[in-house]
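#structure-requests
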Amino acid sequence: MPEYSLKELMTIAAARMIQDGDIVFCGTGISMVAAMAAKHISAPHSTIFFETGAIDSLLEEVPLAVADSRVMFWTSVNGSLADSFATMQNRFTGKRVIGILGAAQIDPYGNLNSTCIGDYHAPRTRFSGSGGACDVGSFVPRTITFMQHEKRKFVERLDYLTTPGYLDGPEGRSRAGLPEGGPLAVVTNLGVMGFDANTKRMILTGFYPGVHPQSILQNMGFSIDISGASEISPPTRDELDTLRNRCDPQRLIL
């Protein structure tokens, strides 16, 4: 079995959820490498786009920011911020969009905080804020969130609601006037979480080789159902070859 890093495992775990034909909204970093890996491995007809308006970039080199000129290289459309967000809300393209996000805190229903820790008016830590994540969580039918698996990040109640997931349960989004959809998965350094189809509460769907499900629970501020979880297959030799030689050969992210 080939050796692999934790970042490579997380990247492939997310890439396997992207379907052929998906339109993938992502930032830079590990979310972009996951989208690139999916396009090279299992979703060749997927389209990657960025909030700065670059749609279907060639991505011959790994950009380090969404404003990096390499994001705009050989795009099908080099549009605007408005074009990017219109893609999410367009009645034809919006249904195919999957967003990849990150956050400082997440709650049992997949709601995200990327605004502040502590009281909003006197926070202990202030972050950059939504940066478009609220639009993604509100309007696209599926999202994947990357998180570090720590008790302080998986909290029963957010310090601030930046991005809606399922809000307070099965009817939360409809009561708020949001379209159907919501979080698909949460990918962490210990495993992958999904959401129960009926309650919309987080569940453990997979754990990495060498990680016990109980240790995942010990790193969370709330309890989740782990009964249906299974071990996630490690990256194959072909998946690793794609990551290392086609997606990030300079090891800028991985």
